[in-house]
Design brief:
Elements: H1 16-21, E1 34-37, E2 43-47, H2 49-58, E3 62-67, E4 74-78, H3 80-97, E5 103-108, H4 114-129, E6 133-139, H5 148-162, E7 166-175, E8 178-185
Parallel strand pairs: 1-4, 5-6
Antiparallel strand pairs: 1-2, 3-4, 6-8, 7-8
Amino acid sequence: MFPARNAILLEEPIDKRSAKSFIRTNERIRAREVRVIDENGEQLGILPPFEALKIARERGLDLVEISPNAAPPVCRIQDYGKFLYEKDKSDRAARKKQKVIVIKEVKFSVTVDEHDYQTKKNQAVRFLQEGDKVKASLRFKGRQMAHRELGYKIVNRLIVDIGEAGTVEFMPRMEGTTLHAILAPTKKAEPAAKKPAAPKLAAAEEAPTPAPVQS
């Protein structure tokens, strides 16, 4: 039977922080037994969750399931709010270290003039120096497909002109009516370790000048 329209469905309150991070805590831990580690890193052995939770409550802390796939699951007695704060802090630090590689496209045409070519070349160099990859593309239109060597000449010139600012990741190749190449930033060479400075030799003390012998 379906519940009456006006019936009130009682549900177990959910900790929004747990729901967000999918970490079971306290009464939401469903395993029959858990391996318990206290707030000091000490092993308390394998206990039923209700006993482990009782210990956590007596210490004013939470029971947090930190390894749900272990057999039995591993739980730690700790301050859950502090745990989430530290976890968020470490996640943000890890994201800062990640470098997102972006591919930026620079488009050419067979009829590109010198000024436009130089502008696009400088743009490609700037992208590479900023750490992004560059896709140099050249699209042939209509009868230009009969003169593909002109397109290769432009893209190959770009590769040469960029020089040490980038390296070729994919050589020029055709895809349909478009010729393209992928350039990647040049990896910066690690600075050579400085050699320890040679210890300075102490200046030799001058020998005292002997006093003149009086006759």
